[in-house]
Specification:
Blueprint (H helix, E strand, L loop, with lengths): L16 H28 L5 H6 L18 E5 L4 H5 L5 H6 L16 H21 L5 E12 L2 E5 L7 E6 L29 E9 L3 H11 L3 H30 L11 H4 L31 E2 L5 E2 L3 E4 L16 H5 L12 H8 L3 H9 L16
Helix pairs in contact: 6-7, 10-11
Length: about 400
């Protein structure tokens, strides 16, 4: 396999002292304008006190809610999974983005500017993929589970059984606080789970999948052989297998294990385009910016987390499948904590971080820090939430 050339040239002309000073002053003035424009834009965003945002929550008529009961409660373990089957669920577009080749697959292979590099990379990936499958380089594993659940305010409580007396875990969701127009609600994920006082028996599921810890040793072996290209390639393919496993497990949840879409017949672009009933936002992603919720998922193989709450091993995804029966479109919490964590006591608006810290019995600085790292990373254990 030939390494991909990825050199970016940056030139910097030599300046005399007066020219250098003028150049630096110009850059500072330019960035001062950018900073002021950003600050002005932030000031124009009207944020509601948390109490008012909660009053404007999304309202659902739970009396007409039809519940689909999962096929089992508790967890089910998959100690391994067929790599060839998972390979059919790989979305290749993000793979090329790993190499800074931007475009949709397969059109990128015929791109006028990037096509040649994309075709070479794809050929190398297919060669390694064949070895991964034939020699079983990875051992994919998964755990799925389902539990009785109901919402209490902005929280989602999971229970050990249908009696709903003993609490198993709590997910602390975050509510949008930007002022909305035209009667639109300030949404939190908990709005789409039947409230405990409604008397409706609702359910939540979850899963954790991993492409396998083997990725680490294989990548290190390539690095020791000074083959950084193959090291990056195997990591990128492990990431694709983890995402493919999430896609496949999500499909089986919809059709088999929960069974709320038994007649679904989607493939290819329909799956990639999420034409099915549901979505899967992740902790640290826009709908739930709090990374610490990854630890709350009461299922999955043993996982370790760094201080930033990224997962070990890297190619791992965890998820909450679907609050059943509710039509739902993608939402984002709009970086609530990052933009409001310093506003407590200012009189301008209530911060979400302080009450969230109280709900979670967590230090305010920790909630602010984790919520403030709301960035999409290659290896986040993704919260797989599905709304139908």
């Amino acid at each position: 396999m030939s390494p991909m050339p990825r050199v970016r040239w940056v030139s910097c002309p030599r300046f005399s002292r007066p020219s250098r000073s003028a150049y630096i002053d110009g850059i500072r003035a330019e960035y001062a304008k950018v900073a002021e424009a950003h600050a002005r834009n932030e000031r124009e965003k009207q944020r509601l006190p948390l109490s008012r945002a909660r009053e404007n929550a999304h309202k659902i008529d739970w009396s007409s809610y039809s519940v689909v009961k999962p096929q089992f409660f508790g967890t089910k373990v998959f100690e391994t999974y067929d790599l060839e089957e998972l390979s059919r669920y790989i979305d290749w577009t993000p793979f090329f983005q790993t190499w800074e080749l931007k475009g949709r697959f397969p059109a990128i292979l015929e791109d006028e500017k990037q096509g040649e590099a994309a075709r070479q990379l794809y050929a190398d990936a297919q060669a390694m993929l064949a070895k991964i499958i034939e020699e079983k380089w990875f051992r994919p594993r998964a755990v799925i589970g389902f539990w009785p659940a109901n919402a209490v305010g902005d929280d989602i409580r999971l229970f050990t059984d249908e009696g709903r007396k003993e609490e198993l875990a709590t997910f602390f969701t975050l509510r949008q606080q930007l002022s909305k127009r035209d009667g639109r609600p300030n949404v939190a994920l908990s709005d789409f789970v039947a409230p405990l006082d409604s008397g409706v028996a609702d359910y939540v599921g979850g899963f954790v999948v991993t492409a396998g810890i083997e990725e680490v040793a294989i990548a290190e072996r390539f690095e020791r052989a000074n083959d950084d290209y193959s090291s990056i390639l195997v990591k990128a393919l492990a990431d694709r297998f983890a995402e493919a496993f999430a896609e496949r497990m999500h499909e089986r949840v919809r059709k088999e294990f929960w069974g709320y879409a038994p007649d679904e017949a989607l493939a290819g672009d329909d799956l990639i385009g999420e034409a099915y009933a549901g979505i899967r936002p992740a902790p640290g992603y826009p709908a739930q910016p709090d990374h610490t919720e990854k630890k709350a998922t009461p299922c999955g193989p043993a996982r370790r987390f760094r201080a930033s709450i990224s997962a070990i091993p890297k190619a791992i995804i965890s998820a909450l499948p679907r609050w059943s029966g509710i039509r739902f479109s993608t939402m984002r919490a709009a970086r609530i904590c990052q933009s409001q964590r310093l506003s407590a006591g200012s009189g301008r608006c209530s911060t979400t971080c302080r009450p969230t810290a109280r709900r979670k019995s967590t230090a305010l600085r920790d909630v602010s820090r984790i919520a403030g790292t709301n960035k999409k990373a290659r290896v986040l254990p993704a919260l797989f939430c599905v709304f139908c």
